[in-house]
Specification:
The complex is a heterodimer.
Chain A: H1 11-39, H2 52-55, H3 60-67, H4 82-95, H5 97-110, H6 114-132
Helix pairs in contact in A: 1-4, 1-5, 5-6
Chain B: H1 5-24, H2 28-39, H3 44-69, H4 74-97, H5 100-120, H6 134-138, E1 142-147, E2 152-157, H7 161-178, H8 183-193, H9 198-222, H10 228-247, H11 254-276
Antiparallel strand pairs in B: 1-2
Helix pairs in contact in B: 1-2, 1-10, 1-11, 2-3, 2-11, 3-9, 3-10, 4-7, 4-9, 5-11, 7-8, 7-9, 8-9
The chains are: A mainly alpha, B mainly alpha.
Chain lengths: 139, 281
């Protein structure tokens, strides 16, 4: 069977795949490059590398107290630091699905598939809620 | 010991885990959390955050091809992923709020249950679904994929969608709480409960993880539970190893690798359980 004879993949799947591919590539590249700069000592970290072994075995609450690391979106202010620059790449990976969902909504809307439009909107809302930092636990 | 020794060891171990994960048919996250949590000096809070990112990065890397090949189906995935994604936030919040010993013990029990599930669960390559349920019919959840091994198109549809939605809500909680990824649970539910073909189940499961783990990863990120020094070598090692594993797929005997992985998980699960109970610290 030639490729042209194979069952057509839905338009929204192709669109989703294209956007996801770029999001994943960019996120991974940023995380790895920033990490290499951090471990090479080119981008100094908020937490000095030598202090890490004393901190990474602590429970989260103790780690946050001793390292003075920020919670919520405050880490973005430290994005020029090597350890937090890597988190920018990780944040891009964790956000990569949102533009994909946005990209397929017009396809479902054009076909009048209101349920799938609603599912995509709700999925975006869930991801934004998770990313917002509004939901917190006490340490 | 120099600061870089453990991250370098982590990269090497994750590279090895990535190699065996593909032939064993498991996601990296389910191997990563119990093994790294049990045998590395990192606190479980950070290991779970990194575990989610390992599973997320693998799912994001595989997603585009799975969607283009029709092995991941958006119509099947989106409703299930929506519920699992929302519940994974709850799981992540609960997991970070509970005492470490409780999470460690629960992780050990979960891993041992996964070993039992993986050792005993049957698979059905092409389940017979004589009739769609009403919900999946209303959502038009059905499709066709080209099975290269058989050289033909396979039409599929699903059943028991409401039960699938309930089960995926529970799976989301476990994924968020333990940072495990959840392919070990997604595939049996899609394949055995809902009746999707095995290849569509595996592909759609991987795609669902890209949404579920994104939500939970954000919770860990915002709580400060993601350390670059743990997360980045893990993701890089696992992804490089998975590339090698995919190439060795035709060389390695999958059943032998699978037994090796089950043995690894058994030891890691026992270690987590005994560590949580304070019997092997």
């Amino acid at each position: 069977m030639s490729a042209s004879d194979r069952p057509a993949v839905a338009e929204e799947q192709v669109r989703y795949a294209r956007v996801l591919e770029w999001g994943a590539r960019i996120g991974l590249a940023v995380a790895v490059v920033a990490f290499v700069l951090y471990v090479a000592g080119i981008l100094p970290g908020q937490v000095p590398r030598d202090h890490l072994p004393a901190l990474w075995s602590l429970p989260l609450a103790d780690y946050l107290r001793q390292s003075a690391a920020p919670v919520g979106w405050q880490w973005i202010r430290l994005a020029a630091r090597g350890d937090f620059a890597s988190l920018v790449g990780i944040a891009i990976l964790a956000t990569a699905s949102i533009p994909c969902l946005v990209a397929v909504i017009p396809v479902y809307a054009r076909r009048g598939e209101r349920v799938y439009v609603a599912v995509c909107v709700l999925a975006i809302a869930v991801l934004l809620l998770a990313a917002s930092g509004v939901l917190v636990v006490g340490h | 010991m120099a600061w870089w020794v453990w991250p370098a060891a982590l990269f090497v171990v994750c590279f090895a885990l990535g190699i065996v994960a593909v032939p064993a048919g498991v996601g990296g996250g389910v191997l990563f959390v119990p093994i790294v949590g049990g045998f590395f000096p990192f606190h479980l809070d950070f290991v779970r955050g990194a575990g989610l990112l390992v599973a997320l990065a693998s799912a994001l890397a595989a997603g585009p091809n799975l969607l283009r090949n029709g092995l991941a189906d958006l119509r099947l995935a989106l409703p299930l992923a929506l519920l699992a994604s929302a519940s994974s936030i709850g799981g992540a919040l609960v997991g970070l709020a509970l005492p470490s010993s409780v999470v460690q013990t629960a992780l050990g029990i979960t891993i041992l249950a996964i070993v039992a599930l993986m050792a005993s669960a049957k698979k059905s390559e092409f389940p017979d679904v004589p009739k769609q349920d009403r919900l999946s019919a209303a959502l038009a959840i059905h499709g066709v994929f080209h099975d290269v091994a058989r050289g033909e198109d396979v039409r599929w549809r699903v059943r028991r969608t409401p039960l699938g939605l309930v089960l995926f809500t529970g799976i989301g909680v476990l994924a968020g709480m333990f940072g495990l990824g959840a392919g070990w649970a997604n595939v049996p539910v899609l394949n055995l409960v809902m009746g999707a073909p095995l290849k569509v189940s595996a592909g759609t499961s991987s795609f669902i993880l890209s949404l579920v783990d994104s939500s939970a990863a954000w919770v860990y990120l915002n709580q400060g539970a993601v350390l670059a020094i743990i997360a980045v070598p893990s993701v890089a090692g696992m992804m490089l190893g998975a590339r090698i594993g995919a190439r060795l797929l035709t060389v390695l005997k999958a059943s032998v690798v699978r037994r090796l992985v089950l043995a690894l998980l058994l030891v890691a699960g026992l270690r987590a359980l005994l560590k949580g109970l304070g019997l092997w610290t």
